[in-house]
Amino acid sequence: MITRRDFVRSTTASLAAATAASTATAASAGARPAPGTARSAELLIQRTVKPVVIADYSGYEFTNGGKENAVARAFRLITEGKDVLDALIAGVNIPELDPLETGIGYGALPNADGVIELDASCMHGPLKRAGAVASLQGVRTPSLVAKAVMDYTDHHLIVGEGAQRFARHMGFPIEDSLHTENSRRLFLEWKRRSDPEHYLDPTGEGRKPAPKHEKDPGPDLMARADRALAAGRSMVRDGLIPEGSFWGTINCDGIGPTGDICGVTTTSGLAWKIPGRTGDSPILGAGLYVDNEVGAAGSTGRGEANLYNLSSFLIVESMRRGMSPKDAGLEALKRIQANTVEKRLLNRRGLPNFNIRFFALNKRGEFAGVSMYRAGETRYAVCTEQGPQALELEPLLPGAPEDA
Known about the structure:
By secondary structure, the protein is of the alpha+beta class. The chain has helices spanning about 5-30, 40-45, 60, 70-80, 85-95, 140-150, 160-170, 180-195, 220-235, 245, 305-310, 310-320, 325-340; strands at about 50-55, 120-125, 130-135, 155-160, 250-255, 260-265, 290, 295-300, 355-360, 365-375, 380-385, 385-390, 395.
């Protein structure tokens, strides 16, 4: 990756150019600087918002063989004057296309039928527009299809076969399968763990089935879903898949030098999900919410918990009332904890047996990453003029979701 010194030098120059360009545009339109306003580009930068890009840890970890990660690319493009949403989507395209990131895009973990279904949403703060797709098959970059929904339709969400047909009409290549050898191998391992009577261990040693929930959830469909979830979690415990990839999402939000805020979320959803299951990621107010006058928030982790509380909307509204990004995020986690009452979703301590994380950014460029627990994926990504960094998430609860 590029050195921090080179990054700071290049982005500072780009920021000055972008600010000067916006000032020149205002001047050409007849705008006059307010009395006492500094005229030099250097001083003007100090009077604008410092650009910031935040994301979950995928935005820092993956580079798809290149020199930039998602937050670094998005920040660079923002400081070069590119539209904030276009810059953020260009950033998340990196992990979407990286076959090593098994929670997003190409090579992601599939649904229970072995089919990779992808969801994405985007919101453009200054334009007050949004777009999303769900259960999209065959397109590696669902974030770009979500952007096309925003740009070319009067709708916010297109799903399933309709989403794929729309993508084809918009010129996106449609592939028969988004599997890599790794994602297919992991799917077969999951099948062996969730259905050992039919999918045998090729080593001949046999494999114990994944443990069932303490209490039978009742209907056959719920029992199968419970067994599938247990098998997936056993693969996380055994180190075969990262916890972040099991829930599989990247949220990326940013603010430009003029204060414009945008956001994007893209995912393959819960690994081994019921075909057609759609979580929080493509739902406005849950997986993503942006208000250009206030800020942005997005999420990774258990989508159903987020959906029930529309937590990203709650975070932005809390920031509107004056809360800091961190306090607003923790408030959303407290709401989720209070509303988690089903025994199957509680550990032996009576606390949620799942993790969920939020990333929040306000109009002043202040940001935070929070989580229900400091467990599994414990860091998030940020890029400022100091370069990309991985910072610690602020947890609400001690321990881990599975603690007895």
